[in-house]
Amino acid sequence: MNNVNRVDANQVNASEVNASRVNDKRRAMMQAASLALAGGGFGIAGGAHAAIADDPWGRAQDITRRLSKPLKFREQDFPITQFGAKPCKVVQVKGWISHDDQEMIGTHAPGSFDCYPAIAAAIAACHKAGGGRVVIPAGNWFVAGPMVLLSNVHVHLKKGANVLFSNQPTDYAKYGEFDCGKKGRLVISRWQSNDCLNFASMVYAYGADNIALTGEDWTSILSGQGGIPFNGKDGDCWWTWKGKNRTINPASQANTPGYKEGQLTQRVPNPLNPMSLKDVAPHLTEEERLHIQGEGDRWRADEQYLPALSEAGVPLAQRVFGLGHMLRPPMIQLIGCTNVLLEGYHVKDTPFWQHHPVHCRNLVIRNVHCNSKGPNSDGFDPEACDTVLVEGCTFDTGDDCIAIKAGKDLDTQYGPSQNIVIQKCIMQSGHGAVTLGSEMAGGIQNVYAQDLVFENIHWATDPLNTAIRLKTNMNRGGYLKNFYVRNVKIPHGVQTSPSFYASLPGSPIESRTVATAAGAVVTFDCDYTPTADTVRTRPPVVQNVQISNVTVGNVEVKKGDKKGQKASCFQAIVILGPVASDYNGPQPMPTVVPVLDVTISDCDFGTPVNTEQPWFLYNVKGLKLNRVKIGGKEYNTTLSA
């Protein structure tokens, strides 16, 4: 019998019980969220779509006003030292600080006191008392397990508090609710927008209401130690699990920390996964199975296997990962929570995405320093969330600074991400500054981004790849509508060299010719990494996007034919609409519509390197450029392609 990805035989009964509990939790969570929206008035009321069209920025102001009301907690403190916490010593070890760079980093000394039990006890006592504030004082605190937030609990880091989360994966497979045998005790999670049972995040909550995680200032640090070697000296770290870099023509982030050719990562077939989907999805027809698996055994890699389970309709309780698998947990993951505040701390060196709220309502992240330069270190990824305010944060990331998500494959039960305001933030390194997708099968709507500085201070060595970014494809599908951007300053431009994408055989777009991965100020990529997905049956819809008052500066080009000249980007605008030839489902094929109703006005995009082709358009209808300057020339025109 194949060693398939499920609980051991002696855990079957527990698995069945857990499946029931998972479903019960999901139903309760969705009901609670619906009641909160109905009672709190934070959701879109009937007829609000018309109001958005008439006054989108008025709607943004309304969301901001509603979320500016502070959360309330009982006035009682629960210092973790009263529950037995003890500070640790810090030693210096050689570790990774980015994809490409190593230096000496402070980490907990061997044998450090584990504060996990004390923090868990403080949170439990606070919750039982009806709420209050769990206080982490100044000092270095080693925590070998997840910090699980409960309703009415406010966890506060004082100035100088440095929480060093264990860098051992086993510590996040010890305390979960679901006993999955050799794979550990796991939690309900989402990994790149697919549901699974997996390692707990360093900070985790499920179905909680009225919770806060705050710091006194940016000396209040939560460290995921993603680049610290597991053995403390050399070799693998969390970031190694990413596997070999695939970006075509990267300007930076060319390597994966600690990676050596041939080792097990999320991108290579995992022997724990079955040889055939028949073992976990016997209900599939042979045609369906082959469609999902695709050619070869690439689908057995963990990052491909989980989406395959979703496409096959395998229930959550059977999507068991954890120990023996390579799916890194997010640093902070909050699922099904309402009334959430994240404020004032510094998060660094996270194993995977830095913040990943899923199906949350009424969420504020304010004045947080999101600082992690490792693989997939997105700063803030709200998924299927409703009514969100991102304000005053600074992002320096190894992937997208902000990336709004909404489910992938068949995992769309939480609906769209919507009613999101992003304002007064600063972005440095990253793939995209404000990104929507790529996982957006449930849809994204009503997003407002304003008064932003994409500073890009590392432009010479680790540049921001693109500024305003949409990612979807014929697999992710979904929709984007009602996206508004205004008042953005980009003083040091974006990456001035192109990073291309690889198209599928038979595509009208030749591979390695369109700079969708990096190089444009505005990038709409509706054919994002199409070679990664075997099921391509869901055409995306993109409509009603308004971008205004974006100002882009020039910098000195460091490489290529234009070396030494001044430029702001490779191209100003790249809009690659859906590519119909990618479709591989049953006939008749669904309608594939072009990108519609995009208006760019009152912008100065600086001088692109590619002056001969300042924009690239494919399957776009009615792109309006009003008072748009590119290379000093003003454009007032409507374009289709």
Automatic annotation (TrEMBL):
GO terms for biological process: carbohydrate metabolic process. InterPro entries: GH28_Enzymes (IPR051801), Glyco_hydro_28 (IPR000743), Pectin_lyas_fold (IPR012334), Pectin_lyase_fold/virulence (IPR011050). It holds the Pfam family Glyco_hydro_28. It comes from the Bacteria. Keywords: Glycosidase, Hydrolase. One of its GO terms (molecular function) is polygalacturonase activity. The keyword Hydrolase applies. Belongs to the glycosyl hydrolase 28 family. This is Polygalacturonase.
